[in-house]
Design goal:
Layout (H helix, E strand, L loop, with lengths): L9 E2 L3 E2 L3 E3 L16 H10 L5 E8 L16 H16 L4 E6 L16 E2 L8 E4 L2 E4 L4 E2 L2 H20 L4 E5 L5 H6 L14 H15 L8 E5 L15 H11 L7 E5 L15 H5 L7 E4 L4 H9 L5 E4 L1 H5 L3 H6 L26 H5 L1
Helix pairs in contact: 1-2, 3-5, 5-6
């Protein structure tokens, strides 16, 4: 029997021992005053999953202004850098590779996180969603439209966070420009009503992202930078597709050919978008011809679908999310065609070890 496509090595701008990627997932375990990742929780959690070709960490805020969820770890303070050093060492000691996802939620936040100040976004609009605050879920508010100065400050925040990631020992960074968060709020016409250099045209709506990318590549090689997008997102966090949505992503992704990134990380639609006339229902198939570099795909892939999409040449890497919550040894389970353990959604965002570092590995299960 020939080796599964997922289990073959991949060598391009990024070199990986297999094509199975642990997707970034918010897990809310940094339940301490400084939002610092800890060795006994984060360190063990990622070490358990180090057989992945690549681990991408949970979204980690680049500044205090970037926060939008409780107990998420950051990468802007010295204490956070020191905490992440222990995590990267554990992964590297197991022969793994790990990128950190750099995150700014934009308007998907609440004044409770910002001493009463409004969250920042492309425009002064309310996503009409819920923010998970220290006091529980609260309605989101109308955001503050970012000034040019605030945009420049945020560019520097991302650059500093990337430099901190290098100090912390990460193999690279992923820019979280997806899922209705800050950069996506600039890309999308429903959330960006600006009339200055950051609104209107496709070039303007993507300008902020490319300013951040250019700033980050000053402190870390391009080959150690990834970027994540969700082109056919509709209905989440107040994001609505229009006739310009896909052309904007086509422009953006085509322009990324001018860079030598580690990878482009795309999500298949989260919901059924077949009734939306200007949506793309098969993201990898649509965007693969537009991008010359490494393409990573995710959203609801299993072992069979993962092997198939690589075989078809539509993606190079497949990122798995929820399967990695409950199967820390997902690579070994795929390799041996073992049964997969179910996840417990009740513990996705709780604190402590339960539902985080207590899922068994396949060897222990067989014994």
């Amino acid at each position: 029997m020939s080796k599964q496509n997922l289990l073959t090595s991949y060598i391009h701008n990024i070199s990986l021992k297999n094509r199975i990627v642990m997707a970034p997932m918010t897990r809310s375990r940094a339940a301490n005053e400084g939002h610092v990742p800890t060795d006994d929780l984060h360190g063990l959690y990622y070490e358990q999953r180090a057989s992945a070709g690549l681990i991408i960490t949970e979204g980690s805020q680049v500044s205090e202004r970037a926060v939008g969820y409780i107990n998420t770890p950051g990468i802007y303070s010295e204490a956070q850098v020191e905490g992440w050093k222990k995590v990267t060492k554990r992964v590297h000691d197991k022969g793994g590779k790990i990128f950190i996802q750099l995150w700014h939620v934009g308007r998907m936040s609440h004044p409770d996180f910002h001493n009463g100040e409004l969250p920042l976004s492309a425009s002064a609009l309310n996503p009409n969603a819920k923010s998970y605050t220290p006091e529980g879920f609260k309605d989101t508010v109308t955001a503050k439209e970012m000034t040019i100065e605030e945009i420049k400050t945020t560019v520097k925040d991302f650059q500093r966070a990337a430099a901190n990631a290098v100090k912390a020992g990460f193999d690279g960074v992923e820019i979280h420009s997806s899922n209705g968060y800050l950069f996506h709020q600039f890309f999308n016409g429903s959330s960006n009503k600006r009339t200055d250099a950051y609104g209107g045209s496709m070039e303007n709506k993507t300008r902020f992202f490319f300013e951040v990318l250019d700033a980050i590549k000053e402190v870390i090689p391009q080959e150690k930078i990834g970027a994540r997008f969700n082109p056919s997102l509709d209905g989440l966090f107040g994001m609505t597709m229009d006739e310009d949505t896909i052309p904007t992503f086509e422009y953006l992704i085509s322009k990324l050919n001018d860079y030598k990134l580690a990878y482009l990380h795309l999500s298949e639609p989260f919901t059924n978008v077949s009734e939306i006339p200007y949506a793309v229902t098969e993201i990898a198939k649509h965007f693969r011809p537009l991008y010359n570099g490494t393409l990573m795909i995710n959203t609801a892939f299993d072992q069979e679908k993962g092997n198939k999409i690589i075989e078809e040449g539509l993606a190079d890497l497949v990122a798995y999310g929820k399967l990695y919550v409950s199967n820390p040894d997902l690579v070994e389970r795929f390799e041996n065609n073992l049964e997969l353990a179910p996840w417990d959604e009740e513990t996705f965002y709780t604190t402590g070890a339960k539902g985080y570092i207590d899922y068994p590995n396949a060897v222990a299960q067989k014994v």
